[in-house]
């Protein structure tokens, strides 16, 4: 076989192997458009390779040491130069097309991965380094093969996506330094509300014996839909303030009512539950602000650069492998960041904020920060945010809170929960068969349920203890008169 034919045979064999290797092994219905196009090119390359290799096989001598057979093979190899040139051109075209389709498949996969990274803001150093290499490789390929303006625009879009992914990663790295383990520990420890206890606050069909509960419901609903500023919920110890606040934050009905206020803007929700018996990161202003900032930036990562400009460029420029060690222990630094978040009109242009803070009385006072410092700070923050921020807070009935938050936008919890406590006592006791027997005439149990509810005076903790004692007494055969 002539040397040229041997070279051609080698090239064709390698091209055939390469095309088989790079084509997706997935079923057709799982393949992307780029992968399916690559499969079509592969099939054409295989057909061309088979055709050329068959023709070359016929030019081989069975015995390369036989002069006669070598002469015959030489004659067979003298096929049409025109045909040979055509096949070589087809081979070059096939190789070029295979390369272009492979590049297209790489674009498709890289775009998908970059979009995924941009959405979740997470990636390993290896992932990001690999993606940048892919983009660089494709840029080089575009230059070499001159794919034209459309391909260059595709590369440009890839680079933009890469930058978007990088911004997301930078935001995530800053937030990782801002977060702390105790962030929502208190919230998770608050018990769920009894189904009938606080349902009245949103249920328009509920009618109760106490007009104050109905008025409280109306005030809160109006504040969510059209109001502004601070809504203060006060109550005695054990009245269920934290349980109510947890119920409110999780309520879909609350979100629906706030949607009327947000009027097309993105609604950002955040919460913080003070806990006097927790760590410093559960009962300090620093912890509260870090939590509110973290929750907000987690929902709006595009704001991170504006809230923490001093860290953004620094973290953005770090190598992938470099660890990020930002320390947010300085109270003034956190206050300034919170101020940038709520005072910058550009940040609130298409967003509004609903912050819920439970247990102001459980804030741990220090010589530097006291209740009388915390309260005006919260009030001024809401005023600074104008129509873009609502703040729902709860506390015990301390004068410092009642005086600052006095007015129509507030409710005393124990005055609103009579019906909820009554239903709780009734339903709990009626699960006991012995109590049901006592309820039959001539005893009746309505008076006992009402007596427990009235004496509770809105304190759920007291009610829970008393109902458990009554339940145990019924199991022990206690008479109705003894229960009273």
From TrEMBL:
<keyword id="KW-0677">Repeat</keyword>
<dbReference type="InterPro" id="IPR056884">
    <property type="entry name" value="NPHP3-like_N"/>
</dbReference>
<dbReference type="InterPro" id="IPR027417">
    <property type="entry name" value="P-loop_NTPase"/>
</dbReference>
<feature type="domain" description="Nephrocystin 3-like N-terminal">
    <location>
        <begin position="219"/>
        <end position="396"/>
    </location>
</feature>
<protein>
    <recommendedName>
        <fullName>Nephrocystin 3-like N-terminal domain-containing protein</fullName>
    </recommendedName>
</protein>
<dbReference type="Pfam" id="PF24883">
    <property type="entry name" value="NPHP3_N"/>
</dbReference>
